[in-house]
Amino acid sequence: MSRKSVRRNVALFFLGLLIAGGFTLYTFNSKLRPVASGQSQLVRVDAKVELSTELHILEEKGIIRSAAATGFYARVKKRENAVEAGTYSLAPGMTADEVLKALRTPVTVKVTVPEYYWISRTAELMEKCQVAKAEDYRSLADKPSEFAKVVDFPLPQKSLEGYLFPDTYKMQPLVGAKAAITQQLQAFEKKVWKGLDHPKNLQHVIIVASMVEREAKFDEERPIIAGIIENRLAKGMPLEVDATILYAQQRWHVPTRNDIKHTISPYNTYLNKGLPPGPICSPGLKSIKAAMHPAKSDYLYYVAMPDGHSLFAKTVEEHNANVAKRRRAMRDL
């Protein structure tokens, strides 16, 4: 073969390599190119996984074009080869760099559980914040035994009502009911069980505190109302707490005489003497402290005025007079 032929063949060889390389680069870039823009999605990773595994999931969801191309790009850029447990926000249209950065940055959401919420309302809040499905939260909250190893304080047997501490939490979307409930129980353990030096008769305290939470608007009245509840218990009087009827009905409104007479439930404290079977909401620290240290008085009755302040009475005659004051005040509104 002549030198000219050899040079021509070598030139053709390198030209072929150049064409092949260019084609490969073009193919790679096309697979790395973002897909059409779309709405962001929350992606949950329950346990640490290899990056390649998660990239294949993102490809299936249509967030990236090619898991293989994105994975190769990550290796070239010397990015992390694993994704930690967490919830991540990703969207079609992200570049490879944006996707890899997002998989290093778990997202959280602020969840504020008010003191007066009960399980069903908290469940709806958790679903609204995309933390857990309401049905899952309600179901698991009725299984205290599932959390026996999570905390050290004595859990009730039938329901976690009253123990799901009301607070502002930083939670991960899609984390699920068990993780959310665990976080609330651990907050109760820290702020109530340990923070208040292991309250004695815990279930009694939380039940009373839950009624105080729903009945008292002003902090200075909480210990007085707690004391009235204890006074009525000591005398064997029905507690006649309106909020317990509303809990039995699972809705918040002004109860009527018909509600009082016809709400057949162990939570109806007009028809049943003694404490209700369990708490009626998640009480805050102020109500719990009031239940632990009820005010000493001879009061047996209270009624709330339109501004939220309560009138207290020692006898039924005094109470009836206070009720009449309330009615006049309501008419004057």
From the spread of the alpha carbons, the general shape counts as elongated
Q: Hey, roughly how much beta strand do the residues contain?
A: 5-15%
Q: What level of helicity do the residues show?
A: 40-55%
Decide which structural class fits the backbone: mainly alpha
Q: Stretches where pLDDT falls below 50 for ≥5 residues?
A: 9-23
Mean pLDDT comes to 91
- Count up the helices: 13
The major β-sheet equals:
2 strands, antiparallel
Query: What does the radius of gyration come to?
Result: 31 Å
> What is the succession of H and E elements?
HEEHHEEHEHHEHHHHHHEEH
What is the tally of beta strands? 8
**Strand line-up across the major sheet:** 1-4
* C-alpha termini separation: 112 Å
Please explain how this structure is put together.
The chain has 333 residues and is mainly α. Helix content is 48%, strand content 9%. It contains 13 helices and eight strands. It has helices spanning 3-32, 51-60, 67-76, 96-102, 119-128, 134-141, 177-194, 202-215, 222-235, 242-249, 257-262, 285-292, 316-331; strands at residues 41-45, 49-50, 82-83, 86-90, 109-112, 168-171, 301-304, 310-313. A two-stranded antiparallel sheet has the order 1-4. β7 and β8 form a beta hairpin. The longest helix is centred in the N-terminal third of the chain and has 30 residues, at 3-32. It is elongated and about 90 Å long. It starts with a helix and ends with a helix. Mean pLDDT is 91; it is low at 9-23.
